[in-house]
Amino acid sequence: MIVRKLRLQRAWSQEQLSECSGLSIRTIQRIERGQKASVESLKSLAAVFEVDITDLTQETDMTHSTVPEINTEHVKLTQEEQSAIEYVKDIKDFYSHLWSYITCITFLTVINWFVSPEYYWVIWPALGWGIGIISHALSTFEVVNLFSPEWEKKQIEKRLGRKL
Asked: What is the CATH number of domain 2-57?
């Protein structure tokens, strides 16, 4: 998440960061999703962002940090920032899903029109996938929140057999 924040602060795409750092786009995506990065990757990113390598390996919750403040406040993620980044990622994922739906259904409609214009079979994949799109939208924009934080807490406490 820290790498993503630094990248977004500079308004860079993952492709631009990839070019500057010499890392592959997939490596950057993997690191931004929270997977462990190699020391070489961290060194490359630290050089590009002009920060110390330890700044990239710190925990994202810095509210009770004992690390001294050495001009790295722009690197730390607050809970609010992390939540906002995750929310924007969810919205981006929804719009990507919607774009895939529109593109594929349009393509299928053209095929349907040329192959069998007397029967509109394209309606079935459009309806099926459309239900998934609606469900994704309701979840993303929190219109219906079946799995609320309270539900999560209850499930965790149920698995632990004790209160959190």
From this structure: 1.10.260.40
Short-list 52, 55, 56, 48, CA closest to 22: 48
For 10-67, the pLDDT digits (tens) are 888 888 998 999 999 899 888 888 888 889 989 999 899 888 888 887 644 434 333 3
pLDDT tens digits, residue range 87-107?
898 899 999 999 999 999 999
